[in-house]
Amino acid sequence: MIRDLTCIVCPKACKLKVEYSEKGIERIQGVLCKKGQDYVREEIYNPTRVLTSSVRVMDGDLKLVSVKTNRPIPKDLLMKVMDVLYKTKVKAPIKIGDILIKNILGSGIDIVATKNIKGNG
Amino acid sequence: MREVDIIIIGGGPAGLSAAISCKREGIDNLLLIEREDRLGGILNQCIHSGFGLEIFKEDLTGPEYAKRYITEVERLHIPFMLKGNVLDISQDKEVVVVSPKGLFKLRAKAIILSMGCRERARGAIGIPGTRPAGIYTAGQAQNLMNIRNYMVGKRVVILGSGDIGLIMARRLTLEGARVLAVVEILPYCSGLPRNRVQCLEDFKIPLLLNHTIVDIKGDKRLKSVTISKVGKRGGIVPRQKREIPCDTLLLSCGLIPENELSRKAGVILDPETSGPIVNEELETNIPGIYACGNVLQVHDLVDWVTLEGEKVGKSAASYVKGGKRNYQWIDARAGSGIRYIIPHRISTERDVEVTLRVSRPGKDKDILVKDRNRLIKKVFFGKVNPSQMIKLRLNKKELRGTKALWVSLR
């Protein structure tokens, strides 16, 4: 299989052509440093992203609290996690770093607050 | 009239960092004025990550990055005013500010401008068509979605491939909208490669380069936009028009430093950056008025805004304490291939860091720093791009005897 990738490790943004199979990467065309090689392997076999979004707040000075996954999650879980966040409501006050959802979808990853929310009561 | 040593206008990343820096330099009588009801500026609505990689070597979200500096402001007991809208600054550094508590006049020994920038809106781009609801600037949509909990639309087209537009393409997709296309008039993406990959390619959102919007239709709500290919010389290719039905259009067409106040004070602006003309202390043409952050030049990384604020705090504190002033300034000028260089004047007596942007993308280029025909420095870049701010350090040994500094691209 062949895939065109842009390395995003640094601002050089090297353009790459990656030939690979289920067994491993066979050939990479384009200049690539050590960090870039790690990125390519991850991106082909186990692409992950940090998801940032927001969750509704009850009784807070803002209607939404911004949140993130505490570690990168597999890319194909992004929309499934969004479905859970869409249905979630949390109560103020909230502090940065508070775990709002533990072990989301059994992934071992937590949803944590990235903003302080004061109670309005 | 209340007398303050240093007034800082704007409590975003630039102002926060400038205030902390002033305080650390021993200035206690200072005041940070913020228009909104909380400190942090635009970072509060930038809930995505990617902040702090330079300074903290951590991948923080906007609110987390802001919190670090807000905590420091509180810890150092730096006085700040919220919901304070500065109406006027005069040449002799009188500041008029209105807040729910009333109208105040303050006199400052030094002023730091850190008001940030604003988005280029539809009127400034001149897109033909009707004026229906459903047209937002990208940052306005970001505020509605991330702070106020309003969804802006379902079928969305984004004009402009700046970073905010790319970030919003992902945000809208995650929240259930369909982003039909990101339309960019230039032949290249103006946002960072990281955002192009993670915001567009991840969600298979098409990026249409060399395209622009030539018509907007809709009565009450937006019904469609018509896009067209743009030819080599910038003209519209009439046969390559296509109508895209949509209910929402986001504009991500660039940022303009917010300098209405600066102009009132008589600060001279650089037509290329729309920010003040400054010397290496980041001082404007008016002694004791300084500028930092996006009001000076639009940055791509908040970390660099923070560093600029830090530098300006030191300069303003030194001015108040009666530090050295009698420098012989020489001009630093942007030559061919360089869009602008900041600062505009340097002293050659100290090491100096200059920031600049190139005019267009290129490969295997040298940036040349010259004094007429004497080559001072040559730096090689494998790739240059207008979307990436370039920093160069020049040391005083290299600069000795320089009459005028020219920076060009070859």
Commentary on this structure:
The complex is a heterodimer of chains A (121) and B (410). With 121 residues, chain A is an alpha+beta fold. Chain A has 2 domains: 2-46; 52-113, CPE0013-like fold (Roll). Chain A has helices spanning 34-45, 78-87; strands at 2-6, 15-20, 25-29, 48-49, 52-58, 64-69, 73-74, 89-91, 99-101, 111-113. In chain A, the strands form 3 sheets. Chain A has a 5-stranded mixed β-sheet. Chain A starts with a strand and ends in an 8-residue tail after the last strand. Chain B is α/β, with parallel strands linked by helices and 410 residues long. Chain B is built from 9 helices and 27 strands. Chain B has helices at residues 13-24, 62-75, 122-125, 138-146, 163-174, 193-200, 260-264, 302-320, 396-399, and strands spanning 2-9, 30-33, 49-51, 60-61, 80-81, 85-89, 94-99, 102-113, 117-119, 135-137, 155-159, 178-183, 207-208, 211-218, 222-230, 236-245, 248-251, 255-257, 289-291, 330-334, 338-342, 345-346, 352-358, 362-371, 374-384, 390-394, 405-409. In chain B, helix 4 packs parallel to helix 5 and helix 5 (163-174) packs parallel to helix 6 (193-200). The mean pLDDT of chain B is 95. The chains are: A alpha+beta (121), B alpha/beta (410).
